Amino acid sequence: MKIIQRKMVQIQYFAVFILLISVANAQIAPGVYLSDRENNQHELKIDKDYLILSVYKIDPAEFVKTVGGFYNIDGEMLKVQLEFNSDFEEDGVKQLEIPISAHGNNITLQMDDTFTFEKTDTLEQDLDGQWLFATRGPDTGQDRRGEENPRKTLKFLMDGRFQWIAFQTETMAFSGTGGGSFTSKDGVYIENIEFFSRDNDRVGASLEFNYELKGSDWHHTGQNSRGEPMYEIWSKRN
Q1: Which CATH number belongs to the domain containing residue 160 in this structure?
Q2: What are φ and ψ of residue 59, in 5° steps?
Q3: Are 98 and 57 in the same domain?
Q4: I want to staple 52 with a disulfide (CB 3.0 to 4.6 A). Which of 2, 68, 177, 219 is the partner?
Q5: What pTM value is reported for the model?
Q6: 199-233 pLDDT, tens per residue?
Q7: Per the domain annotation, does 55 fall within a domain?
Q8: Which domain of life does the protein's organism represent (predicted)?
């Protein structure tokens, strides 16, 4: 009996040890989290060790800001090494440290105020993940942009939400962003724009394209906003 009790105590200590390790190396559950306050939508997209936080007004439509980069949680602090910051010219911020707490599927961030984000429903689709623009198609062996290139255009798709961001990691120059909801099924990809940094009047537009997955590449074809033929190749980032 004493041997059994000793083993049970050892198992309990081991379970507590594993729990402490998991908390110390905590990551936020991947997904899309929303916090709607006074016509301002705060949208937090998280995938593995990367996150994007965007703020935009709903009515009338107006882009406010976006930041994104690689994150980790140290105790009760969310630390983010930014790859892009739409307000960088004004605030010069390259790193964020934000007090964080989790309650079930909700996340609370202590920024300029207290914001509670609710996790949206999980929705798996083709094209989910992070993609970097590689080159114009068709793929005939031309030079491709990759992770080593400081000039990047990132597309982040998850749980029916999409966002693209054009930026430069060395200078932190920000070129633009846009996002909203999307569907990708049977080779047809549709974007429904809900915010657009370059032109708020573009909000409400729906754009339809064709897609084909070839290995780790996404071949994206159709017509651009000017009605001209478009062929882009995006490479899976992770």
Answers
A1: 2.40.128.490
A2: -145, 110
A3: yes
A4: 68
A5: 0.86
A6: 999 999 999 999 999 999 999 999 987 788 999 99
A7: yes
A8: Bacteria
